[in-house]
Specification:
Elements lengths: L1 E7 L2 E6 L11 E3 L5 E3 L9 E8 L6 H11 L3 E13 L2 E7 L2 H14 L4 E4 L5 H14 L4 E3 L15 H9 L7 E2 L3 H8 L6 H13 L4 E4 L8 E6 L4 E5 L11 H14 L4 H17 L44
Parallel strand pairs: 5-6, 5-8, 8-9, 9-10
Antiparallel strand pairs: 1-2, 3-4, 6-7, 11-12, 12-13
């Protein structure tokens, strides 16, 4: 039996199949009508992670960054959208929050359908959405929840969370998550402590623990030498240094870091190891980044998947129990 795959009139790949597959467990069979039926029902799903965040049309931050990060860690991502933004690499121009009732519907539809191994929370837009997410966490008691308390973009003057929402996050939401990952400006706002060096980063982390957080990572990417501070309730304060990558392409670094922590926790790592691995991943994603527009480019979350283009004239066909494809026929 012969099959012909053709993307266009100029590229055709021929291959042959036996009448029946030699190994029935491959799930490949040829029907009498000549149609190939692929059965992948025996594949096991990876950890399924939920991101609750806004949508960035440039796909450098928000749910797009989270989903790419989940995929890079061999996890499957699902998303609930808290807001649509008008933005590009040049900054956020406007924010359009999702109505709370619609956000609640998104969340309940997802949790009714799939088993969620971890939750990452980013932009919430307003108090109504923050309250919906808090109720969602109280109802479902997820094992791992990572909160990135974004309230202002690096580029642009639009608020990503209103004042009432910020107060709600500080007073209610941070108590319900596994770990919160504020950068220096966010740590300052949440604690009221001026953060300008390592000692004040530690003080802010400890203050957040006193305010009810179970664990805190204050990220120091804004410093000359990037140092992150980890503080867990009842534990000691630890610092994690790193190399400063000279690149303007850091759009979405906070989103990516918190999403990577969620993926590592869902994959079985303890928090300390998850933070170390997430920091290394973000550093490499910045190092492998590239510009896509006129402003700060995104991280390259999928740098591990990069493959060189095949040599001219070589075509690969997915092998689902089939014989290897023959060389393309000349036409």
């Amino acid at each position: 039996m012969k099959f012909l795959l053709a993307r266009d009139a100029a590229t055709r790949v021929h291959f042959s199949l036996p009448a029946r597959p030699k190994n029935e467990r491959t799930g490949f069979c040829a029907s009498r009508g000549g149609h190939a039926v692929l059965n992948n029902h025996t594949n096991h799903a990876p950890p399924i992670l939920l991101t609750i965040a806004g949508f960035d049309p440039s796909c450098g931050a928000g749910v797009a960054a989270d989903l790419k990060t989940f995929a890079a860690h061999n996890c499957y991502g699902v998303a609930a959208i808290t807001a649509l933004t008008v933005q590009s690499t040049q900054g956020v121009k406007s924010v359009h929050p999702t109505p709370a009732v619609q956000l609640r519907a998104q969340l309940e539809e997802l949790v009714d359908d799939v088993t969620i191994a971890a939750v990452k929370i980013g932009m919430l837009a307003n108090r109504g959405n923050a309250a919906v997410v808090t109720e969602f966490l109280d109802k479902h008691k997820f094992a791992h929840v990572v909160l990135d308390p974004v309230f202002r973009p690096t580029a642009g003057n639009e608020e990503l969370l209103d004042t009432a929402g910020l107060k709600f996050v500080r007073d209610e939401l941070l108590k319900r998550v596994t770990v919160i990952t504020p950068n220096i400006p966010e740590a300052e706002f949440l604690t009221g402590i001026e953060v300008k060096d390592l000692n004040s980063m530690k003080a802010a982390a400890q203050k957040l623990i006193e305010m009810g957080a179970k664990a805190v990572v204050v990220t120091g990417g804004h410093l000359d030498k990037p140092i992150d501070v980890l503080c867990e309730a009842g534990g000691e304060v630890e610092t994690f240094g790193g190399d400063h990558v000279k690149s303007p392409n850091t759009h979405g670094s906070g989103c990516t870091f918190s999403a990577a922590i969620a993926a590592q926790l869902a994959s079985g790592q303890q928090l300390r190891e998850a933070v170390i691995l997430a920091k290394a991943y973000v550093t490499k994603a910045i190092e492998k980044s590239y510009a896509i527009g006129k402003g700060a480019g995104p991280l390259n979350q999928l740098y591990r998947f990069h493959q060189e283009a095949p040599a001219r004239g070589i075509h690969e066909v997915p092998q689902h129990g089939m014989h290897p494809a023959s060389e393309p026929a000349a036409h």
